[in-house]
Amino acid sequence: MNEEIIIAGFGGQGVLSMGKILAYSGIMQDKEVSWMPSYGPEMRGGTANVTVIISDERVSSPVLNEFDTAIILNQQSMDKFETSVKLGGILIYDGNGITRHPKRKDIKIYRIDAAEKAAETGVAKVFNMVVLGGFLKIKPIVKLENVIKGIEKSLPARYHNLIPLNEKALKIGMEYIYEVNIN
Amino acid sequence: MKELKLMKGNEAFAEGTIRAGADAYFGYPITPQSEVLEYLMAVRPYETTGMVVLQAESEIAAINMVYGGASCGKRVLTSSSSPGISLKQEGISYLAGAELPCIILNVVRGGPGLGTIQPSQSDYFQSVKGGGHGDYKCIVLAPSSVQEMYDFPKLGFELAFKYRNPVLILSDGIIGQMMEKVYLDEPTPRWSEEEVIKNSPWATTGKVVDRERNIITSLILEASIQEKHVIKLYEKYKVIEENEIRYETFQCEDAEYLFVAYGSSARICQKAVQILREKGIKAGLLRPITLLPYPKKAINDLSKQIKSIVVVEMSMGQMVEDVMLAVECKIPVNHYGRTGGVIPSPKEVADFMMQKIKGE
Amino acid sequence: MQISTKDIIKPENLVYTKTKLLTDTPLSYCPGCGHGTANRIVMEVLDEMGVQDKTIGIAPVGCSVLAYNFMNVDMIQAAHGRAPAVATAVKRVFPDKFVFTYQGDGDLAAIGTAETIHACNRGENITIIFVNNGIYGMTGGQMAPTTLPNMKSSTSPYGRDVEIMGHPLRITELVAQLPGTYFVSRQAVHTPAAVRKAKKAVRKAFENQKLNKGLSFVEIVSNCNSGWKMTPNDSNKWMEENMFPAYPLGDIKVPKDENI
Fold this sequence. Notes:
By secondary structure, chain A is of the alpha/beta class.
């Protein structure tokens, strides 16, 4: 197994921490992982993205130009990364704020209205876990129990009371993701 | 039982210094390495191991604090990124001249000048060909994983004290900022004052009756004595070259085409090797771990089975000169570089090698 | 009766002896220069305190660059201006040692201004001895930050024009403003009375260090007869008439909780 993922959105959407939790979940499942953020000037307020690789083998390059999965949370990231999904790969996006929807027919496209659902169900604080839940529904590369362990490892102890909320959000995400057919 | 953690390279380095028994860290903030100082200030080793952590007023002050701590026979270090490392060069020259052990981490970013904050490898010449003034060399280690960022403080101190020489750890923004698995080992305790005196009888620890004064200086006013001192330094560098060369090979056994790359470029090349192997091209990778001393012989030996070499660096071509010297013009040596903070992708690196193979 | 030196050099006639904390190396300072006396009183104080085995001195660049040849304690030669940074680290890794820097005005008040100010401001528990002779002596008499207005030097051959070259920097008054300095004093070593006062201030500085009080800073206004191109006597007279009005002697910052 070798899964190469880009997660991209606005700074503040929890893109980097989602990546970190995913990477930690991989470690909990005895996988090799890498987490490489974009740390250019854009990290200060603009777009943020992170490349996460989870693999059975030692990870070679932490920096990639194409991905098995792109998780896209804003329009700029859609414009930048839709073309970076490998043939037959997966693109997951939150429709919130998207004006130009993905068009590729050689990949699988899934939509999750995570921002909307998170607000409705009272988990807006952990919106990124709704997105992660959606991804794990489509690509169950790590078990839910290991994701919970990953959250435990990623969060400082003072936030451990939020773990049940995170778990709830993951499950909401799993429920509300759906495939989009491009015709 | 080793502890397992997901850490950034810079954080792993900081944790590695604490667990290597470091006595003091002196630093100044600069992107992309500020996490080193931030981590140490958050963890507060001064309350546990007694390690001093101090934010200096400048990179210049920080390297001179390293000079002071190293003069006392203590395990001390600093870290910075390219523009800050330029500021430290005078101090590094003094440290080398006075034969003081220490560690200097450079998390390289794009230059020249203020440049960019993104990853680069354009400080190779500065690191291995001098940097500061005078005839001297530093031992240069190039980590290519977060684990090595954690491991190299310990290795660095070992080498620094074995040879009484500064050790540069030449990293870059990718290795500093990325997170990977790190296995943390049992901490090495800091040396007691008795151990400091025993390990470094030359150090300024206070003149006691039964020994002469210890003087730490790089000033020698007599030219002939200065020459002798430099010759002695170069004899030491020769011993270092005989004993401390470290490198790693990847799929070199049957390789016909070779990448030579260090640090994060080596990671990118490893992926490029996989891409090329899938296309039936027998590519391999040699990764120097010590950039000084340089694995010249290993590259020369491999050049007997290799048809051509591609050196990949995030620079306009610096290490490529050392590879050319190593192969003694026996086979073609090409360079592929991106610079200014642009990171080459594995695919473009693989494509470049393909193009060179076809062109031959 | 003819008296020979043999009749005079007898233990019972001994009134002064060189402290054992000065080496037997002849001082290489110019005859008439105040550095020799300043070296001596620092070493006498450390000898009297009995702390040779706990002392680490830092000599910078300038006339004091060779101080390690004369001071019989462990010494570190620092880069130009950086002695306070070096001393900071030495004291931090060895909090129980006595750590001092011995710096000139070019070193401390020009190239090393940042290190001086910040070591003082952090209140490093060290002693700074600052010898101010208003000129770069070692390099042959160039203008220093402390060179007086209209004073001639090899880089102000027509006198220091403050319009072009700026004003003399009274860095001692400056560091006295910082909360990290505990004791700041300005002294001289050109007369026996001045030497006694200066030595008292130096002793105070090291006593403060023993008590972990913070940074003590002692300026010694000195002559540079070679750089000033005067005889030693004339230079001392010139110093009294010109340097002392600009750099008045006395304590500048005395701890509130005590009188000295």
